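Hi V.,

Quick status before I head out on leave. The structure for the redesign project is tokenized and pasted below; the design run finished overnight.
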């Protein structure tokens, strides 16, 4: 049995330990994660998925009321998402699955739709954060909405227009409590002000809790020359860079993962989490607020070489490979 989100092939004994057919089906569908104990942990929906759902509900309700909508997630998985639509307005709350630490769990999103001829226009209003300065990927004042999330929103809206025979619509998406919840996230540290970010590479949130950590460390300990990666971009690129090795997604649990690994290990991914793990003070004296900004500066090669050299001394069995979002290697252990 294969996880359709991560591509991980679940061991047969894990599958046999699961005694609940309904939960096992969740794992088959990609909406749950099967662990080594046989327990299945439910994945949640990202802010991007929630925003796409309320946008679709708003447009759909221009013709008929609705209680839920179907979406195709960026990972390609079809899902049914609760989202109420009435008279051009959509409402829905973010579902966190079995991720108890999700500070955006239950956060409400609202969308308003008005038909217009010829084009789709998506606006982001109250509670959606905006960048307070230019960054390598976003301009000052731009909404904090990732390209995959925006693509999912536009696709959801287009599906409704195709069904109702209209050519265009203007949709405004907001989150009434977004500004308050954003204070509990990393947004203030990365220059996003006034609200939460709308994100979602796969459309799903991983249930990174203690049970999954135990399951993940079992995989790491049993793997021959594992490649550990921190996120979805790293997962995709690592599979291309190391096609003959097992790639394991560890999220932010770098220390636990590295402690569990045996023999030759590669740590591959975007630089932010990895470099902050290697050197929590890596930005000190640089003038930058984020590792992403540092990574495109002239200072980066010297700083990263020193950091990776010291880390190699501490963990000689670990090779670090840093990549950017395009998959280019921008730093590597000596």
């Amino acid at each position: 049995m294969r996880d359709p989100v991560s591509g991980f092939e679940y061991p047969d004994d894990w599958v046999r330990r699961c005694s609940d057919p309904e939960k096992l089906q969740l794992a088959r569908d990609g909406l749950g994660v099967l662990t080594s104990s046989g327990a299945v942990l439910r994945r949640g929906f990202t802010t991007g998925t929630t925003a796409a759902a309320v946008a679709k509900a708003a447009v759909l309700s221009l013709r008929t009321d609705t209680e839920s909508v179907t979406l195709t997630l960026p990972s390609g998985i079809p899902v049914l998402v609760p989202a109420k639509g009435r008279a051009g307005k959509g409402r829905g709350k973010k579902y966190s699955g079995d991720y108890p630490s999700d500070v955006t769990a239950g956060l409400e999103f609202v969308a308003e739709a008005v038909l217009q001829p010829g084009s789709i226009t998506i606006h982001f209003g109250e509670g959606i954060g905006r960048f307070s300065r230019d960054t390598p990927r976003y301009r000052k004042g731009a909404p904090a909405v990732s390209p995959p999330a925006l693509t999912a929103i536009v696709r959801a809206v287009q599906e409704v227009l195709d069904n109702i025979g209209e050519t265009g619509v203007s949709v405004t998406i907001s989150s009434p409590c977004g500004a308050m919840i954003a204070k509990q996230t990393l947004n203030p540290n990365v220059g996003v002000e006034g609200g939460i970010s709308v994100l979602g590479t796969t459309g799903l949130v991983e249930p990174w809790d203690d049970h999954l950590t135990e399951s993940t460390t079992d995989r790491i300990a049993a793997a021959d020359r594992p490649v550990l990666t921190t996120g979805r971009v790293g997962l995709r690129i690592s599979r291309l860079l190391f096609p003959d090795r097992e790639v394991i997604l560890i999220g932010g649990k770098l220390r636990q993962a590295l402690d569990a690994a045996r023999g030759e290990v590669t740590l591959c991914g975007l630089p932010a989490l990895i470099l902050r793990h290697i050197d929590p003070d890596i930005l000190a004296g640089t003038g930058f607020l984020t590792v992403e900004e540092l990574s495109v500066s002239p200072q980066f090669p010297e700083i990263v070489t020193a950091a990776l050299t010291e880390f190699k001394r501490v963990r000689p069995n670990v090779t670090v490979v840093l990549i950017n979002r395009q998959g280019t290697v921008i730093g590597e252990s000596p």
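Above is the designed sequence. Residues 12-43 form one domain.

G. will cover questions while I'm gone.

Best,
W.
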